[in-house]
Amino acid sequence: MSSIKEVAFKAGVGIATFSRVINQSGYVKQETKERIEKVIKELGFKPNEIARSMTQQKNHIVAFILPNTKHLFFGEILYEVESALYEKK
Questions:
Q1: The model's pTM
Q2: pLDDT, position 49
């Protein structure tokens, strides 16, 4: 798995420029953006979701505490909530 530094270096840009492209914030020339996206695909870069959640202070995690998931009632509730969340994704 590639790091931010590796992708930025191979694309010939700084980490800040790479960050602006990944986070879709700030201005980056279209040519530079395309070059970074090409390198991302080549190296198979995937952002670290844990690190992103720390900086954005969001984690998109939903937790359920249920007494018993084998019981039909609780299992059905869990299934419906999970289905609804996947639709919103």
A1: 0.60
A2: 76
